[in-house]
Each structure stands twice: as C-alpha cells, then as structure tokens.
Amino acid sequence: MGGEQSKPEPVTRTVYVEKPAPPPPPMYDEPWRVLPWGNNISGLNYVKDYQPQNDEVKFIRVLLYGPVGAGKSSFISSVSTVLRRRIATPAKASSTTSDQSYTKKYKTHKIPKEGRGNFYPFVFNDIMGLEDGSGRGVSVEDIKLIMKGHVKDGYKFNPVSPLSPGDPHYNPSPSMEDRIHVLVCVQSANAQEIQGSVLQKLKDIREAASDLDIPQIAVITKIDEATEETERDLRNVYKSKHVKKKMTDLSAFLGIPMNCIFPVKNYSEETDLKDDLDTLILSALKLILDLGDDFTCDM
Ligand SMILES: Nc1nc2c(ncn2[C@@H]2O[C@H](COP(=O)(O)OP(=O)(O)O)[C@@H](O)[C@H]2O)c(=O)[nH]1
Ligand SMILES: [Mg+2]
Questions:
Q1: Among 174-183, 185-194, 210-219, 240-249, whose mean pLDDT is lowest?
Q2: Is 56 within the bounds of a domain?
Q3: Domain that holds residue 163
Q4: Ion ligand 2 — residues with CB under 5 Å?
Q5: Ligand 1 lined by 268 (C-beta under 6 Å)
Q6: What's the CA-to-centroid distance between 13 and ligand 1, angstroms?
Q7: Distance between CA atoms of 202 and 186, rounded to whole angstroms?
Q8: Residue 72, ligand 1, Cβ within 6 A
Q9: Fewer Cβ atoms within 10 Å of its own Cβ: the N or the C terminal residue of the chain?
Q10: For residue range 93-149, what is the model confidence (pLDDT) as tens digits?
Q11: What are the backbone dihedrals phi and psi of residue 115, each rounded to the nearest 5 degrees, phi first?
C-alpha cells in the first residue's frame, strides 16, 4: 500500500539582503568641552576665594526653578557637599517624584564656611516645582515677584493665588540682596517630554528674567541615568551624543547659549565624595558666580 512518495527537493536560493548600516557610535571620539577631571583644586579655590566684586552686595542670590523631581534641592545639597567636603543635605530632596514637590515654602539656603558663623557669599533659593496646568505648582506671577525681591523667606506658595502686597511675606522695598542675580533652570536628562503647561511656564519665566536682564543658565541633572556611556563613566559626558542633543534642544527652547548649559550628576545615593561629580558641579557653580558678578556690578 501506498508507495513512498518522493519529497520534492528543497529549492535553495541565494537571497542578497542589504545589510543595515551599523548604528552610528553613541560617542564622539573627542570631548567637545574639556574639564579638569581629577584636578578640582583650582575650581575649589576659586569658589573659596570668591567675593562679589560690588562691595555693596554681600552675597549673590541664585534662584533654581524647574519641574518637580528635576533635582533642584539635590543640586543645592551637592554644592554644599562639594564645598564642605562631606555629604550634606541642607535642602530636603524628595525621595520620589510622586510625592510632588517637597519644597512648599520659599527658603534661602546658605552654605556654612570655615570659621564660626561664616557663610559663602552666595545663597540659593529653591521653589516648588512648576507642575502642572491644573493649579498645582508655583505660579509665574510668584516667580516674577521673587526675581524682583518682593518675596520674604517662609512664604508658602499657593498655586491658585499669587502673593499680594498686603501679605506679611510681601517685601515692598527689596534691597539689592533680596533680588535674584542668577536664574538657573534645572532639567533632568532622562525626563520624558516636558508637559505643555510646564513648557509655557518655562517660556514665561525666561521672558520675565530677560526683561529684568537677569542672567540665566541651565543645569541638566541625572546624566548618570541618561545613557550607558555616562552611567559607565561620567567623564564621557562631553563625548555623549545623547547628552549633547539634550543640551542643544534645551538651548534652542530656552534661548540659553550652549556655553551656559551644564550637565551634572548630583549627589544622590553616594555616601562618599566623588571627584568627577565635583568637577561637574564646580564647572556650573563657577559660571553662576561669574554671571552673578556681572549682574550685580551693573546694578
Ligand atoms: N541618579 C540621580 N538621581 C538624582 C540626581 N539628582 C537628583 N536625583 C534624585 O531625584 C529625586 C528628586 O530630586 P530633588 O532634588 O528632590 O528634585 P526637586 O523636586 O527638583 O527638588 C531624588 O530622589 C534625588 O535623589 C542625579 O543627578 N542623579
Ligand atoms: Mg525640591
């Protein structure tokens, strides 16, 4: 029964498939900005010796703004850590981005310097995040008042009604030191797209600062989480194409030139000092102080 059926011979054919081009390498061969890796002494001395050139200004006031969880509070702690040479947490960082912004009150952060009662001649103000369109988050009106020096420490942000002149936290006659001298936009390198409502706020804040001639820089945080290359070694930061793209995008959007944009890794889970983190933080801090000087000399 049923003789064996002969199977047809399989046909073999050579198919020529065009090989996909290899993906472009994620890094440039050479860094496009050179930092003094491994040698922070001159950077540290620069900051330690820094004094505002305008004698009438006792300190430079720096305002950080940006989305919740971008790393604003951590940046302030990181500057303190770098300068005090020990892990510090003066500005409470939120442990998760979902607990909204921890910073609800307007607060000036000073960094102690050697010697009793001494502080560095620059201070940081941290405000709650800009989220979101539905009423939470600091209002642009309040940020404008802060920039002009009308907001006193301890003011509790109320997203639905900005500070008004009758309020006890309203400062009707700000001194030179009450005003903001440098504005720093803080953004995370690994953030998803920024919400539309936040984008509009960023634009409004940038314009208000420009009207007041306040110098602006941007700090891009969390570069350790942004790419494999920077996760492996922070020294790859200015070789990474991804980081450069983040910087050019932010530059185009905020109208801040590339040389005023600084990628950093904040002290977050570290228990010890790390030279490479310090190098990045110091490079941003140096420009903040220089720009603060320029602004206060022209006041
Ligand atoms: N890996 C990493 N985590 C960071 C960095 N900066 C901040 N964080 C973490 O991100 C979270 C939010 O930071 P926080 O400073 O509270 O953000 P803020 O809301 O802008 O003040 C915290 O868990 C920080 O530890 C960074 O550069 N790298
Ligand atoms: Mg905060």
A1: 185-194
A2: no
A3: 139-297
A4: 72-73, 103
A5: yes
A6: 57
A7: 10
A8: yes
A9: N
A10: 554 444 444 557 899 999 999 888 999 999 999 887 787 555 577 888 999 999 999
A11: 100, 140
